[in-house]
Amino acid sequence: MDMATGQDQSPTQTTPPGQGDMSAPSGDMSSTPTDMASMPGDMGQPPGPSEPPHPNTLDQDKLFMCDGSAGSSPARIRRVESFEWAQSIRHSAGNLVPFLPGTSHPYSTYSDGETIDSSILQEYLRQNHNPAGSWKVHSGNGHPRLVNLRGEGSLAGTVRCFQWNWNDQPVEEDPSDECIQTFVTALLEHGVYFRPATPGEVDQLVAFTKEQLVKEKANPEIDRRDTIDVVVRAAWMTSPAIFRSEIGGEPGPDGRRKLTDWELAKSLSLALGDSATGLSKSGYGNDSIVHKVMLHDVQQAAIDGTISDPEVIATLTRRYLSGTDPATMYPDDQASDYPPGSSSFIDEYWMSPKLERFFQEWLGYADAASVFKDTPAATSRFETKDRFLPHHPDGNALNYRHTRYVDNAYKSANLAGFLDNTIARVVAADTKVLETLLTTRRYLLPSASNANPYSAIVYDIDVYESGEIPDDLPSRWVELPEEQRAGVLTHPAWLAAHGGNFENDPSAIHRGKWVYEEMLCGLIPPVPITVDAMLSPETKGDSARSRLVSQLDNNPECSGCHSIMNPLGYAFETYNHAGFFRAEDHGNPPDGSATLTVFPSSDPVLMTGMEVDDAVDMMSYFSRSPRVKRCFVRQTFRYFMGRNETYADACTLQQMEQAYDDSDGSMTEMLIALFQSDAFLYRHIPEEEVEQ
User: Fold this and answer.
1) Model pTM greater than 0.85?
2) pLDDT value, residue 208
3) Please, which residues have CB within 8 angstroms of residue 114's CB and are 6 or more apart in sequence?
């Protein structure tokens, strides 16, 4: 439920890879896409009178021209994000319903239009019993939130008058008003809102609790645990449990409202991780354990009023964003209590769960394994059916076993997990982050031996030829050949996620469209419903490139969009649909050459008509392009602000870019600049809302 209408909140439309012979995922075959720099207007499907323009239609150069005016963001009330909710109730991280983001949102952090409808409410009611468990009893071990109620510094002594004692008996069968208020206050602050509750919020739940105590006393089948269960579930039905406020305090002379300390603490904690500040950590509960909370120093900064201090923001961001030593996240007494990253593959390099998800959502590779691939190794050197037989210890091995092992190895490769790890290493180094992301050839590989020779074949590694890949982590960080890989867009996870189902599907269109819109901040119009976006079945035996050239590139009705997308995608045609490096392409050498079009004249690196040999060559240009860098800054802004940028954000975007440049490409410093910016710290009520 977003109060903002003064800033663009419309999502970037992206279309997943098609099925079978599906052709263009988007793009009017008779219209022209938006020029990234000079055509902020008509897109063939103009926005309605009340809809703001798509952010990719804005003049990127103008977006970075700060006029020195004070900035702010529209005030809003945001529905909690699914990961935040799952953490708060200590649910399984893999079960994130009911607060999944809308399918039209470019990022899960967007809240525009997100509210509670009947279907979400039904699912929410089915699951909101989860947080009640740790508030029912003191005794026993094993519940994740139990430490919150026991041990030194815990709430056990505070709420014991209302809770059960060690013998599972209520300490006060008829609790006093003071006891009830103490219990409710502790519940809301430490178990639901993760901030001090207002008197009105406490009074409302106290009244409800008293009603439940009357029922408990009148019905012998109801005991205190039942009462607590109902009270906790009711607390999780209140608005502050489901929505978080970004309204700010009293307006200043210029009408801007600075976020309150607790609003800022929650915004900052959720930008750095998935947990609200003050959320109790998991742990074994006994009297010797100190009550520990997530982001404890963010909580303390909110308590002592220093949370908006620029140096405090910088210190917290550097601590929680990324690194090479998990112990740096917490003081010595809390260093080993909670893992820093969300990926099971993160080893000595870690990044916060929020930052990890930014890359997963921006690059769109998290679900790579779910994109069906028919014959993943097709056109690669591992397609030959007797590939391993001369070297195989079982000389009588049947050919089909090879195909089966290749397919199984690909399906179990966990490509997304290994790309998480590769990105974490780049971010942890925190130098020339974007350039390194687009050019690194150092990937973390699965271990492979003669007993398991197939696990690394997607990276074009045959252990019979190259030797085993040891199990130890340092040996599995491998520098791949410079003619094969360069950065995250040539990693098998990204290629597979944006590839089709068959090796000669139009993967070039999907990949080219993504590059144009997400790396260059251009925009392709939607496919009109009158267009049959299918490749001809007569060409199904040809290579993907020849199919596209014959049907689209030489067709004047299609060239408006495809002359932009296709060349960007052709550069990746040295890889097949599953991310394997091609050995041949339907009898011809793999061809990744392309002539790129429609670049702004202001970019000194990317120029209209420039030729590239393949994706590796193209990434060397992209890594040095001011255009690409500014689009990266914009994508970062969108994800961590949960909205699209507008011209009013020019000063913030400029500050982010300047911080990145001055720090030799540090993503941490760029995000510090964002978290210290007026756009992050201040809010305004749009005029339309004031009138209403």
Assistant:
1) yes
2) 98
3) 1, 2, 78, 79, 99, 101, 102
